[in-house]
Design a protein that fits this description.
By secondary structure, the protein is an alpha/beta fold. It folds into two domains: about 10-155, Leucine Aminopeptidase, subunit E, domain 1, CATH 3.40.220.10; about 170-480, Zn peptidases (Aminopeptidase), CATH 3.40.630. It is about 35% helix and about 20% strand. It has 15 helices and 18 strands. The strands form three sheets. Strands 7, 8, 9, 10, 11, 14, 15, 16 and 18 form a nine-stranded mixed sheet that branches. The longest helix is centred in the middle third of the chain and has 21 residues, at about 160-180. The mean pLDDT is about 95.
């Protein structure tokens, strides 16, 4: 666990703390935050002189390091004062953690420039996310320096603790994604769900291959035919919200994807360890629920397997029957995520009366072509639910873009020999057609939204809170905001 796990608070002044780095702020109008102003006034205007010389402009993303009275002072640019928002604060705090790691400083202190709850929470999130490194397989000591602790000065807000817990949940999701496929197996996902259930007082059910096959989950059973690794159908239930309808989250748990008989090219196939990042979103959210203990009812469903091309692997042309009874013509065994999600969505529709269903999946390469690594594609059946998604996206800085689910797209997955087929009309609208396929397995009347996180789960441009070459844990913060945790 190479990240800080909590964030302390203190009423110490800047010259009383024993932190190896003290981070304060300056705005674009050249005004300082309270603690930065105190430092400047106590030290002959040293920060103001840097502004006068043009080296400090206060722009969002800026960072300057000063050595004052035997202490390192990091002056963070916060942009326009009237536009200070949680995302600005989150990224600024992440820069403080990153600088500390770069300078091999194990304890940092940072000033919170606002009493707004959202700003305080985002600051703590940024400290934790910025401290994240995936070092589990590093054996050289010189490459393994970790930030040990962080303190927020001048704030006693409960949101600091909340933000740190949310940051930890995101890092938990990142770890699951970053482990290789021989470590993060379906059994590992089930064991992680067990740990979360024990921690949060939740109910856990895990169906094994023989059980879910007999239950009629032909999509998951079909994809799992080619692997000896035991597949799992995992259900977590957090029921602490009285008689409220549960919110249901479904995550694709494809722990390694070779493409099956429709095999992928060898180049970058190693990245297919990330094909389970949809399940990491679900488990990350449940990790946060275990820590924060809100009064909610939430169900998490994870169909999980590998997709390999063994002697028993399913084939193009096969017909599978999903849990809701619909038959599926398989045209491409590399379009497997939608097959296992079909059973997950069908199960959620049959056994729960949900407020809504959200599903998360690294589903289509077309998503990366459409929105790159910048935003997640979202589509669904309920305008109010989509509005809630868009609002949470804006609040958390996790970008989404709505794609249409028009009838013309839905017709593309109709099969001539089965109810539906798992491929549309390549190369047209691959992401949307995949969403249209999933829609067939959500009971009518249930609000539902599908998130294709193929471009955002990993591989994007690194930032102060998203490390290079790592799973991002994208979506955990957005879902928690949607649920008003």
């Amino acid at each position: 666990m190479a990240h800080i796990t909590k964030v302390d608070v203190s009423n110490e002044s800047w010259n009383e703390t024993n932190a190896g780095l003290i981070a304060v702020g300056v705005f674009q109008d050249k005004s300082f935050t309270t603690m930065a102003s105190n430092i400047n006034d106590s030290n002959d205007g040293v920060l103001s002189k840097a502004i006068e010389m043009g080296d400090v402009k206060g722009k969002n993303g800026e960072s300057n390091l000063f050595y004052i009275d035997g202490q390192r002072i990091q002056l963070l640019g916060l942009g326009k004062k009237e536009e200070l928002n949680p995302d600005t604060m989150r990224l600024a705090a992440g820069r403080a953690s990153r600088l500390a790691i770069d300078k091999k400083i194990d304890h940092i202190a940072i000033e919170c420039p606002s009493n707004e709850n959202e700003i305080c929470q985002a600051l703590a999130e940024g400290l934790v996310l910025g401290s994240y490194q995936f070092l589990d397989y590093k054996t050289k000591e010189k490459n393994a320096f970790e930030l040990k602790s962080a303190t927020v000065l001048g704030s006693d807000k409960n949101e600091i603790s909340k933000g740190a817990m949310i940051g930890n949940a995101v890092c938990f999701a990142r770890d699951l994604g970053n482990h290789p496929g021989n470590v993060t197996t379906p059994s590992k996902l089930a064991a992680s769900a067990k740990d979360i259930a024990d921690e949060g007082g939740m109910d856990l059910t895990v169906f094994e291959r023989e059980e879910f096959t007999e239950m009629g989950m032909g999509g998951l059973a079909g994809v799992a035919q080619g692997t000896d690794e035991p597949p799992k159908f995992i259900i977590l239930e957090y029921m602490k919200g009285g008689d409220k309808k549960p919110k249901v989250l479904v995550g694709k748990g494809l722990t390694f994807d070779s493409g099956g008989i429709s095999i992928k090219p060898a180049g970058r196939m190693d990245e297919m360890k990330y094909d389970m990042c949809g399940s990491a979103v679900v488990l990350g959210v449940f990790k946060a629920l275990a820590l924060l203990k809100p009064e909610l009812n939430v169900v998490g469903i994870i169909p999980s397997t590998e997709n390999l091309n063994g002697a028993k692997a399913y084939k193009p042309g096969d017909i599978l029957k999903a849990y809701n009874g619909k038959t599926i013509e398989v045209l491409n065994t590399d379009a497997e995520g939608r097959l296992i999600l079909a059973d997950g969505l069908s199960y959620a529709s049959k056994h729960y009366d949900p407020e809504y269903i959200l599903d998360f999946a690294t589903l289509t390469g077309a998503m990366v072509v459409t929105l790159g690594h910048i935003a997640t594609g979202v589509m669904g059946t309920d305008d109010n639910l989509i509005d809630k998604v868009l609002k949470a996206s804006k609040a958390t800085g996790e970008k989404v873009w709505e794609l249409p689910l028009w009838e013309e797209f839905c017709k593309q997955i109709q099969s001539s020999i089965a109810d539906v087929k798992n491929q549309g009309s390549p190369p047209q609208a691959g992401t949307i057609v995949a969403g249209a396929f999933l829609k067939e397995f959500v009971k009518k009347g249930i609000p539902w939204a599908h998130f294709d996180i193929a471009g955002t789960a990993w591989g994007g441009k690194p930032s102060s809170v998203d490390p290079k070459g790592s799973a991002t844990g994208w979506g955990v913060r957005l879902v928690l905001d949607m649920m008003d945790v």
